[in-house]
Amino acid sequence: xxxxxxxxxxxxxxxxxxxxxxxxxxxxVFRAMVRLDTAARQxxxxxxxxxxxxxxxxxxxxxxCLDMHSKDALAAGESAxxxxxxxxxxxxxxxxxxxxxxALELTDAVTVLTDGFVPDAVYARAAAVFEEAELTRLISAIxxxxxxxxxxxxxxxxxxxxxxxxxG
Length: 168
Prior knowledge:
60% helix
């Protein structure tokens, strides 16, 4: 984690240790998740995909994935403002396109299944702006980030250390 020179030494709480290094103990599962993730994102706009990853990670309280995907989005040229506003996207609709709004609404519905289903109206809005193949990939990408979040939260992956790949 980076700090500023004005931050007194020891001012931050200590990092919570990782509970379980699951990718080390189940490398076949980890590799399968990477392959699934790669397959799910094919044909999706990379910026849209990152917004979906960040939003699901917010809902699931996965600090590790929030750190990773926010840094990746910034490195890819996404604005800090749009990333910050994701937590209140319904009140900040003017920051996002209609396709992004439909994807965020679908992400919320798929991630938080408190009613036991994805509402027809939410699905219909997404289906109106995404072709079926792309919508299938979007649903797959939402399911995959939710799985990653569950590994991250359960195993207590530590945020703050991700370095995005250099762009360009």
